[in-house]
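For reproducibility, we list the full input for the NDP complex.
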Amino acid sequence: MTNSTSSPLRGVRLCFYGAGSMAEAILRGLVEPKLAKPGSISVMNRQNAERLRELSSRYGVVPADTDDMKSAALTSADVVVLGMKPKDAAGAIRALKPLLRPDQLVVSLIAGLSISTIHQLLGREQPVVRTMPNTSSTIGLGATGISFSEGVSAERRELALTMFGAIGMTAVVEEPLIEAVNGVSGSGPAYVYYLMEAMIDAGVRLGLTPEAAKALTVQTVRGAAEMVLVTDEDPEQLRRKVTSPNGTTEAAIQTLERFEFRDAMIQAIVRCAERAREMGDSIREEAAKL
Ligand SMILES: NC(=O)C1=CN([C@@H]2O[C@H](COP(=O)(O)OP(=O)(O)OC[C@H]3O[C@@H](n4cnc5c(N)ncnc54)[C@H](OP(=O)(O)O)[C@@H]3O)[C@@H](O)[C@H]2O)C=CC1
Ligand SMILES: O=C(O)[C@@H]1CCC=N1
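The corresponding predicted structure, in tokenized form, follows.
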């Protein structure tokens, strides 16, 4: 296994500016398998110092909870990861303008926020990696869409790909497709959990204990995903193999079709991508007023 002595992230100083659940998913994915040294990772947020202490005691990362510590962590970082909510992004990034050097790499996790808005807020064409990860990064099974601003060197593209590749799979896409990634995989875990909630509810309604319904559901979802990976067959082919003519699965799928499940999923994902664009527009409008 790669560890911090052989990892390309060795010696790279990371600063998580915004230390919430997505930042934690990524730093945990980097620290637990020893891909990055906790002492090279600093974390900061707006006000919640308790949260920083919690991350420090869990992962050994360095909390920056005073203004001096924040400036020092930001100025000494090679990579600054933007991990605040979209509503906080404009103000937070504008506050970075006097602190960042033009050569520092900015990695954004923020839904909707475009590279051009980051440039506008920083007042210069800083190298920016715009990403859309997901929370499965916590266990090294993330899926991250990545796009680069023009100024990101080949070496830094490699660095970003290594960083997100260490916590799952990556897909480089043109920036206008990042919202599609948001729709499919950024928010995707929530759809799968929602489906699982429904499967567990149904199992309980049919008389299973909640524990049995949950265990059967979890293994079914895990097994189904693994089947697609291991057999390299399409989900549709695999579905057909489960579905005997006039059997039980066919009856279930017909019911899903009656409730327009497929169309509901497609509309949900399209709406998710549209919402990301709306959020990006709001940040851009706010940025124009600052
Ligand atoms: N959660 C997910 O599944 C995914 C989230 N994302 C994106 O990741 C980003 C973070 O989401 P998530 O982790 O869920 O959010 P959280 O609310 O868990 O975390 C946000 C963090 O940002 C900090 N923060 C807010 N304002 C500032 C500021 N001005 N300066 C520094 N830190 C600040 C908060 O600190 P404090 O508590 O002190 O206010 C908090 O620690 C979002 O932009 C989201 O779009 C992307 C993909 C998936
Ligand atoms: O719900 C959100 O806005 C964030 C972005 C992707 C997943 N969660």
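The chain has two domains: 14-175, 188-270. The beta strands are 14-17, 41-44, 62-63, 79-82, 105-108, 128-132, 142-148, 168-172. Both points were considered when choosing residues for closer inspection.
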